[in-house]
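Blinded run. Sample ID left blank on purpose so nobody reads anything into the name before looking at the predicted structure. Input follows.
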Amino acid sequence: MESAKNAGRKARGRPRGWNDSTAQNTIKSLDRAMEIFEHLSEDSGQTLTALATNLGQAPATVYRVLVTLESRGLVEFDPVEQLWHIGPRAFVIGARFLRRTSLVERARPILRRLMETTGETANLGIVQESSVLFVSQVETHASIRAFFPPGTLSPLHASGIGKALLAEMSSDRFERIVRTGGLPRFTQKTLTDPEQLVADLSATRERGHAIDDEEKNLGMRCIAAPVFDVHDEAAAGISVSGPASRMGPDRIPALATEVMEAAAALTAAIGGVPPTRPPS
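Blinded prediction complete.
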C-alpha cells in the first residue's frame, strides 16, 4: 500500500532518473557557460581571445556566453583594458551560500556528535564584549548536566570557551577586556589575578584546549577549544561541560582530544585556517 502510494507521488527535488549523468540529462550550452564562468573566476581579468584560446572554444560562442552572464551581473567588461571580470552578482550569490553555511548551522551536527561521543553537554560560544555568548547547545541525556541555553552570557575569564578564546587574543585586546570587565571572583578557584590568568592562557594555547576547573560554578567542569575562521582568527569555541564527579582528572585527556577534534572539524567546515604555531 505504502509503495503504491509513494509511486504516485511526483518528485519534488529530483525527477525520476536524477542520478543519470549522461548527455540526455545535461544541458550542453549551460555546461559550456559554467566552464567559461569558472575559468574566468580563476584570474583577475581575461580578454575574449585568451578565454577562447584557453578553453578551445570559438570566440563568437564565448562572447555570447559572456554577454548573457553580463546581463545577469555575473561578469562585467572593462572597456578600457578590454578585459572580462567576475561581476558583483557572483558575490551576492556566494554570500547567500555563506549565510546558508553559517557557523551555528555547520556546528549542529558536530555538537551532536561530540555530545554522543563524550556523553556530556556540547556547547558553542562566541565573544561578546567581555563575555562568552552561548549560541548553540546539544544537551546530554544524563540526569545531571550543565545547561547554557542560547543567549546565556558568561565571563570570559571564568569559562572554558572564554579562556580558549582569550588565549588566542592579542595582548592589547586581552588587556582591554580585563580593564573593561575586570576579573570578578565566582568560586575559590576563579582566576582573579592577571598574572595567574596569563599563565593559564599560555598553557591553554600550548596544549590546544582550555579547562574551566569549577571556576564559575562549584562542581562543574568544562573543556574547550577554539574554532578558527578564514583569517586564522579564533571566531568561536566548542566545549563539553558537566559535573566534576563525571569529568574527573582521569577523563580530561580523552575529553580534550574529542573537543579539539570537534573544533578542528568545525574550523574546516567553515573554511577556516588554524594558525601556524612556532615549534615549541
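Unblinding after everyone has recorded impressions. The domain at 102-269 is CATH 3.30.450.40 (Beta-Lactamase).
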